[in-house]
Structure formats: C-alpha cells, structure tokens
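Hi P.,

Sorry for the delay on this. The queue was packed all week, but I finally got your sequence through. Input first:
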Amino acid sequence: MNRWLRVAAIFGVLGTLVTATGLLGGARAAWFAWLTAFTFWLSLALGALLFIMIQHAMGGTWFLIYRRLAEALTIPLLLLVVLFIPLLFGAPQLYPWASDQLRPTLASEQRTWFTLPFFLIRAAGYFASWVIAAVLLSRWSIQQQHGAAPELARKQLVTSAALLPLIGFTGSFAAFDWLMSLEAGWYSTIFGVYFLSGAILAVLGLLSVITYLLGRHGNLPELTESHTHGLGKMMLVFVIFWAYIAYSQYFLIWIADVPAESHWYLVRSRGGWAWVSLLLVAGNFLVPFVLLLSRTLKRTGRALAAVGALLVAMHYIDVYWLILPAFRSAGPLPTFYDPVAFIGIGGLYAATALWWLRDKPLLPAGDPRLQRALEFFTS
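Then the structure:
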C-alpha cells in the first residue's frame, strides 16, 4: 500500500502543478479542466458519504464488508476544501454571474443569489456539513476497533438519520451553484438529485472494482458471493434510479418547451455532444441494466467489477457532459489539461485515502453487527 501511496502522491503533485501553470496563465481550458476533475473526485467522496449514511440509517449489515473502504473515500473531503479555493479565483472564467460583461444580463434574483461573497459563504457551509459528517462517522468507526461498543453503533445510526437530509440538500445546492450556474438562464429543480444519484452509482461501481482487486491479492477473504450479490443489486437499483431522474428532467423540460431551459439540451443533442449523450444512455443505463439483471453476474466478482469500471468511466463522462458544453458548445474536444487535471486531483485524492487507510483493518472490528455481516447470505 505504501508504494501505491507514493505513486499516487507523485502523480498528484505533478499533475496539480502542471495544471496550476495553466490556471496562472489564464487558460480558460485549464479552469474548466480543473472544475471537471474537482467535481468528479468530489462526487466520489459525496457518493461514499451518502452510501454510508443511508446504510447506517437503514440498519444494514451486509455493507459492513465495504464500509471501511467507503470511509476511506470520504476522508479526502478535507483535501477537496483546499482544492476548491482556486475556483474562487477562476469564477470570472467559468460563471456568467461572475463576469462583468455578462452579469448585467442576468435576472435580478440571479444577481442577488450569485455574488462572490455569498457564493463563498454557501460553499463553506456545504463543506462544513460534509466534513463534520465524514469525520464523526469515521472516528466512531475507528473507535469501535478497541472493543464492541453498541453506543458507537447507535451514534452512527442516529447521526446518519439526522444529517442525511442536510447532506442531500447541501449536495444538491452545491450542484446548483457550481455546475448548473455555468449556463445563465437554465435551471432544473432535480438537477442535484441527478448529480448525487450518479455519484452514488459511481461509488458502488468503484467499490466493486476495489474489492475485486483486493480479493485477487488475498485481501478481504471474508467477502463472499452473497456480499457481491448485495452490492450488485444496489448497483442495479441506482442504475434504474439515475435513468429515471435523467428521463424525468429531460421530459419535463422538453414538454414545457421554454427556450431558456431547452437550450441546455439542444446544445447536448447536436454535433459531437449528441454522440456523448447517446453514449451516456447506453453506457450508464442500457448496458449495465441488461447485464445486472443476471444473478450469475452479480455473484461473480470479476464480472461485477467490469460493470463497475464501466459505471465509473461513464460517471466521468457524465460530469464532463454536464460541464464542458458551457465552454465548447460545438462538441467535445479534450485539451491537454483535461487528463492532467484528472490525474493531479485524482492522485492527491487517492494518496489521501490510502494514507488514512494504511494502518487500519479493512473490516470494522468491534461493530456489534459484524458477525451478522460475515454470515450474510442471499440465494
């Protein structure tokens, strides 16, 4: 693990520094690449946090096999607070409401809501709620290692149930502020749900990949076909839910036929973006939906990991599809900064998660539900 930590840290530092040269040089492509990479990696941290909190609130047991890995994915939220700061300086390059030329054309309520100080205050509130929830849940989880403590399990349950609505609302409003406002005049009340459902789906896919790789190297021997099956069924649920939200958003905007709203979809249905839209329909819904209907596939770690890898890749394309048309409306044309920013922020994200995980067992020993989790069985 230490070797992978060093490799991730080196790539992260190099990629971040190279992208920073573009940011300092005022390259607009670099700012959009930074926002895209930041949003993708942030979505994994948020998706993992929501996954953990949902399972705690439901009193789930099977997910304990995956919980420590999911907790590791939330720890880089502290790092992402720092990586968000450059976006404050790049706001005029990204957002119409921050541009002196475009701001006067906005509606009065948009000019009231979107001021840089208020934007910063809201962002601080979002990060505070996410970091507090992630730190509390991970801290109590680690404290359980020192012995069975039912009160710690109850704290996790109560805190998750109490804070889950807050995390959902702040995640949705962050999507409104940081992504939806890239294009003036367009809004969707379920945009945040669309973004968060895709984030959770990507995290489930990532967990299937990580646990498969760990199993190949003799780690996590407690993982059984039943646990894999449980994860696969949850992946299927969120594939359907993501598609439902995506269709609902599209259908409501299409049937209303308001020019300011339909323009957002018109850009994404023409030229090169039309192919990306079709790829998302196929790769994030049709193909995984058909594959995940198979009971055998959901119980096979290798096959499920392949579907999971597809879903993670599709989520990045989804984030790219949400952001980049505001910069290149004619079609996708990746620049040098896109992979560099992805590797830079991703390397730092992975290094932070691995650093936290390096001296911790992969199973939450001490949790009173662990034995039931190990005995979990589905036919």
